[in-house]
Amino acid sequence: MIPTPPSCYLRVFFLFATCILAISACTNTQEKDSDKKEVKTTSELSGGIYRIPLRSNPATLDPAKVRDWYGETIAHQLFDGLVRFDPYLSIMPALAKTWQVEENGKVYRFHLHPDAVFHDGTPVTVDDVIFSLTRLLRVENAAVILPHLLKIQGAKEFRENRAETVSGLVAVDDQTLMVRLTQPHVPFLTALGMCYAKIIPRAAALQLGEDFDLTPVGSGPFRFVSWDNDRMIRLERFPDYYAHPAFINGIEYRIYPGGQDTQILTDFKAGHLDEMPVFGNARRELVQTSNLQWFHRSSLSLFFYGMNTRHPHLKNKDLRKALALAVDRQAIVSRIYNEQYDMATTILPPGMPGYHPENQLEAGNMDMALKLLQQAMKTDAQNIPPLEIVSATRSPSSTAELALVKAAWNKLGIQVRIKYITDWADFEAYLKSDAVQIYRYAWFADMPEPDNFLYALFGSDSPVNFMRFNDETVDDMFTTARKTVDPVERSGIYRNIESKILGEFPLIPMFYMAVDQVYQPHVKGIMISALGAHTMTLNHIWLDQPH
User: Fold this and answer.
1) First and final C-alpha spacing in the chain
2) How far apart (Å, rounded) are the C-alpha atoms in residues 90 and 92?
3) How far, in Å, CA of 220 to CA of 241, rounded?
4) DSSP 534
5) Residue 123's beta-bridge partner residues?
6) pTM metric for this prediction
């Protein structure tokens, strides 16, 4: 790889800054709404139920156990963490009103908001914070935040049941928490803004036990009301929210299991939904409708096909490379998704520190794919058996996309089976099984950190490394990157990590996803994050015509 001068690194960070500040192809609704809020009273803005489609049931509503964006969508409304991200990905106060960083990054001192209370009326205390962070260390299906929490002094001993408490979590008083790390760890504060680090009430969690998954209690702007499986999850405004009580009276998440995109579009056109993601033919269907509000923003995300590198059918790197090169990803973006997304050539999306266009994976080279396949067959001395792709959605766009992939691999002489598992919990369980071969997956960054992409998907001990990628050198590079303070040097390490992973072809990066949403004309106060619409709290939304 050709060394990159520092000026190129600076361009990467400039791209990141411009990406997170820009919202393109949208109305100036947000500015107009800000003006309206200055002249309207809270009572004038209040009222109504906000209706949102949810394309699957969440597996759980306990933030420590959430592993899908359906649960994350709701968790952001029910719970708050110590810190949060604003729409421009800056770290902002949440339950921690202020904090200090001491001893060159080894100690963090958090001061809780004095007015913060849980939905059951009990105050948020340091005891609740310590309980919430501590239980994360022993959650059976570990969250991707775990490596960051293990930097807390005593966390490793606690996780391994060699200690009863985490020595690095110290209650100075009911409102002041001191966190001591074993060494400076740059991503630590950013990690506390992730969904998993939301704070829950100790007393309620212990009382409810496993029922907390389905009847959660938090301190966020909305509180839980009910969950009718496959139909609806209802939340209501929490009037004692410490930051700013929501304007709307509540939220209805209407569930469409398996990604019933056509029905979502029908319900939106009929006025039964207040917003919906823009997918497939939705734009063509809705473009003639007047006054709709369209929002498009680049996001820190990737849609890809992951390959189980330990499966007997996929152990050969030349075969995995042949599969990747045979797929004409640009044709899929153009023909199936109408250029809504940009074809992916890397793992890290543009705008993420560490992204570099040098780390590119070629697409649509059938001649090279056939040569690699012949080489793979010589190595394994056997014919390539049928391959299986598993998908969590069976929408028109996903079906059309899979048909193109299947046709491309048929040209290589490889037969393909498509398996649909539309229940998310069942789909995730299948990804963890030895049976999984190739799977469709979308990854949205939980925080603006390359570690959240590369370690989460490829770290040997990551709970979502469904590709079973394992490389000791890469693991060592992760360790080095996390303690490297200089941003340019750190970005370069992640760039090299990505290059090494791509060279093994454990995945086929398909396209960088965007946040594309359409809203009814009466929805005001819209704010979109580059982390995705599902990461934003909705207490700022108000309805011009409450219903």
Assistant:
1) 58
2) 6
3) 7
4) G
5) 117
6) 0.71
